[in-house]
């Protein structure tokens, strides 16, 4: 249903942490002009953990309104309380999102049965296409392939974002789920390989700063052109690595500020990129021929 380079969009903020709506509009146009295939709004890269529910729902509506149907909008609606995930997912449906992305419940450390029942409950409560999101390095919760396969039987659970970076894990999901569920990379560094083996795309941090190159890399991989996909990916690899030198989205928000696209704001407990990391991120941007103004 969705494919290619899907940006895990940052949420622009001013220095005091207030939401910057003008910069959000500018980012959306930047992505549409540069070939981004879908926008993931208010996901974990969008600092969903530090937005209240009213802000969260309003941002989903705003992104949908500004996109105006030109590309799909996928709303991040995961939470570590099933009731909250249902409320956010319902907001996304009412706000006009095309689908939802639900990160595994963090901190709680549910069992695999708990994960199954959590996702099943959200899917049954809200009739919108839903994508599972597994990122155990951030959540201390691992959605195993056998549980993904169980959830593939739920009609409106249409995909999974697998962010472990483990290609063997991705292969197992593909083998278990077949054509019942789409597989998306959640790790930029291994996205090309995942797509070449049968994945449908990537939900990408790197796409925030290099949307055209990410789109072209994904398009090449989707048509099976390893040579072209690899050539583009080699240019992007320093970004895939250095944009995680500190906790996401700290480096990517600093990079976007250096590009003149957003203010420097980020909400506590996250802090701006530390000065010793600046040269490394700057070099990665320059290697991808990204124009900086700062």
Give the tags.
TIM Barrel, 294 residues
How would you describe what is shown here?
With 294 residues, the chain is α/β, with parallel strands linked by helices. It has one domain: TIM Barrel. Helices cover 46% and strands 13% of the residues. It is built from 12 helices and 8 strands. Strands 1-2-3-4-5-6-7-8 form an 8-stranded parallel β-barrel, surrounded by 5 helices. Strand 6, helix 7 and strand 7 form a beta-alpha-beta unit. The protein is globular, with a radius of gyration of 18 Å. The relative contact order is 0.14.
CATH class: Alpha Beta
Shape: globular
Q: Compute the separation of the termini in Å.
A: 39 Å
Extended strand count: 8
**Strand numbers in spatial order across the main sheet:** 1-2-3-4-5-6-7-8
- The rounded Rg comes to 18 Å
Percent helix? 40-55%
Q: What is the CATH T-level topology?
A: TIM Barrel
Classify the oligomer. Answer: single chain
Proportion of residues in extended strands: 5-15%
Which structural class fits the helix and strand makeup?
Answer: alpha/beta
The total count of helices amounts to 12
Summed up, the domain count is: 1
The CATH architecture comes to: Alpha-Beta Barrel
CATH homologous superfamily identity: Aldolase class I
Order of helices and strands: EHEHEHEHEHHEHEHEHHHH
Task: Give the overall average pLDDT.
Answer: 97
């Amino acid at each position: 249903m969705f494919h290619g380079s899907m940006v895990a969009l940052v949420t622009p903020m001013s220095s005091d942490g207030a939401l910057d709506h003008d910069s959000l509009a500018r980012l959306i146009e930047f992505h549409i002009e540069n070939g981004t295939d879908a926008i993931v709004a208010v996901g974990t890269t969008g600092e969903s953990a530090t937005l209240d529910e009213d802000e969260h729902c309003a941002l989903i509506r705003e992104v949908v309104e500004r996109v105006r149907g030109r590309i799909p909008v996928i709303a991040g609606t995961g939470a570590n309380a099933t009731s909250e995930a249902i409320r956010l997912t319902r907001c996304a449906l009412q706000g006009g999102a095309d689908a939802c992305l639900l990160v595994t419940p963090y901190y709680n450390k549910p069992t695999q049965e708990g994960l199954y029942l959590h996702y099943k409950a959200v899917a049954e409560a809200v009739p919108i296409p839903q994508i599972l999101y597994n990122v155990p390095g951030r959540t201390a919760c691992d959605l195993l392939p056998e549980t993904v396969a169980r959830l593939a039987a739920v009609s409106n659970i249409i995909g999974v974002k697998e962010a472990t970076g483990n290609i063997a894990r991705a292969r197992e999901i593909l083998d278990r789920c077949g054509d019942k569920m789409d597989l998306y990379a959640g790790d930029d560094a291994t996205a090309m390989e995942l797509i070449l083996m049968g994945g449908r795309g990537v939900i990408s941090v790197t796409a925030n700063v290099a949307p055209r190159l990410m789109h072209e890399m994904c398009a090449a991989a989707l048509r099976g052109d390893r040579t072209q996909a690899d050539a583009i990916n080699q240019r992007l690899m320093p970004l895939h690595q250095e944009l995680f030198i500190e906790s996401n989205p700290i480096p990517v928000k600093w990079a976007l500020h250096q590009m003149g696209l957003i203010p420097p704001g980020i909400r506590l407990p996250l802090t701006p990129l530390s000065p010793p990391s600046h040269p490394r991120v700057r070099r990665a941007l320059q290697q991808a021929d990204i124009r900086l103004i700062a």
